[in-house]
């Protein structure tokens, strides 16, 4: 039996995580969008999110959204990356809601919606400090005035994003900016703000602590549900499962080798000059896994006695000296994935996906 390089996905754990996050948020009056971009919207995983009770789906890629619709998905889908001006027809056709920050794009979305005889809903993104997408706070009122005039568009609320470019942490104060802007828009312009979308996984900590400003009524959660981690706050979320995804790769060589290469050092396979510290002879293993398959920095050996020394396109070299388990050629080694690791393996055609549901494994 050939052991393919594969990503094992425990759908029961993902469903569990989704249900726990939904329960926490619903208790605070917050809806949860299940974010599907971290796993390229693989249908089996989308179903697990749905079974966990998420209130809608969200993705940043139109390719993923086309696939969701082709699979027969009828749920509300929010486009999380501000739309491309050249792609507004597809956005209106396939997404119920999109997040936006450019008036020219919103006008084009409006024209497309009118042509199709529908209303397209938008959330206006406000930049409260992370400096990724969004309107600067002082320009919000003006922008809303322009947006509410656009036919075919229904402005449903405001959103913000943190912890992405600038690494800014969500806090009561910066999220409350969104709440106050919403109140001001309602008071001054009479436009009801149905949705105040307060960020992704990094905002969950505020919900747990009861510190999320009242009024925030939507979060868009990917990483937390999938991996049970919160990279921005640098924490493992201890009430969620952290091992729903495991990558397995086959050992193709095990040998004692020196820790420093022998000969004159030029460049490695990727043009870098490698550096080594001499720690003597080490027991090393190579697995059939490389940079062509996965973002290696996004993998963590499950066995804590194993460390990744490096990788080329098709080989990953491991130091197995300190593990207590005996490793042979033909064995499989398991790796946890980080968010960036998951992004890479979920869309790699070299990595087979297998799913566990109701304790049964299947493709
Ligand atoms: C990716 C993304 C999210 C989800 O972030 P997680 O940290 O995975 O929860 C939320 N909102 C926007 C706009 C995104 O691009």
From TrEMBL:
Gene: orr_1
EC code(s) of this entry: 5.1.1.12
Domain Alanine racemase N-terminal: 9-225
Keywords: Isomerase, Pyridoxal phosphate
Cofactor: pyridoxal 5'-phosphate
Matching InterPro entries: Ala_racemase, Ala_racemase_N, PLP-binding_barrel
Pfam families, sorted: Ala_racemase_N
UniProt-listed Gene3D superfamilies: Alanine racemase (3.20.20.10)
GO molecular-function terms, A-Z: ornithine racemase activity
Name listed for the protein in its UniProt record: Ornithine racemase
Taxonomic lineage: Bacteria, Bacillati, Bacillota, Negativicutes, Selenomonadales
Source domain of life: Bacteria
């Amino acid at each position: 039996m050939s052991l393919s390089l594969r990503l094992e996905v425990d759908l029961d754990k993902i469903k569990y995580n989704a249900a726990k996050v939904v329960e926490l948020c619903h208790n605070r009056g917050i809806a949860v969008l299940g974010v599907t971009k971290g796993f390229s919207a693989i249908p089996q995983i989308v179903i697990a999110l749905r079974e966990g009770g998420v209130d809608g789906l969200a993705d940043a890629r139109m390719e993923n959204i086309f696939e969701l619709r082709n699979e027969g998905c009828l749920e509300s889908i929010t486009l999380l990356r501000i739309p491309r001006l050249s792609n507004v027809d597809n956005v209106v056709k396939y997404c119920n809601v999109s997040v936006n920050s450019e008036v020219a794009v919103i006008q084009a979305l409006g024209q497309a919606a009118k042509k199709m005889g529908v209303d397209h809903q938008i959330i206006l993104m406000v930049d409260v400090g992370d400096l990724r997408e969004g309107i600067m706070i002082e320009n919000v009122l003006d922008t809303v005035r322009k947006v509410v005039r656009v036919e075919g568009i229904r402005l449903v609320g405001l959103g913000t994003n943190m912890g992405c470019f600038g690494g800014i942490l969500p806090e009561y104060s910066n999220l409350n900016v969104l709440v106050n802007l919403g109140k001001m828009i309602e008071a001054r312009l009479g436009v009801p703000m149905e949705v105040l979308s307060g960020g992704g996984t990094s905002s969950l900590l505020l919900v747990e602590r009861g510190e999320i400003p009242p009024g925030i009524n939507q979060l868009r959660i990917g990483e937390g549900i999938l991996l049970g981690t919160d990279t921005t706050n640098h924490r493992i979320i201890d009430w969620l499962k952290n091992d729903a995804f495991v990558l397995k790769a086959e050992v193709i060589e095990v040998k004692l080798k020196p820790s420093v290469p022998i000969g004159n050092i030029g460049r490695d396979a990727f043009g870098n000059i490698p550096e080594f510290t001499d720690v003597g002879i080490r027991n090393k293993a190579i697995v059939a896994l490389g940079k062509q398959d996965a973002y290696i920095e996004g993998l963590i050996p499950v066995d804590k006695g194993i460390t990744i020394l490096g990788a080329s396109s098709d080989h990953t070299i491991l130091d197995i000296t300190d593990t207590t388990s005996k490793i042979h050629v033909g064995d499989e080694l398991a790796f946890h994935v980080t968010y960036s690791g998951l992004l890479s393996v979920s869309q790699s055609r070299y990595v087979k996906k297998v799913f566990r549901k109701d304790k049964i494994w299947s493709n």
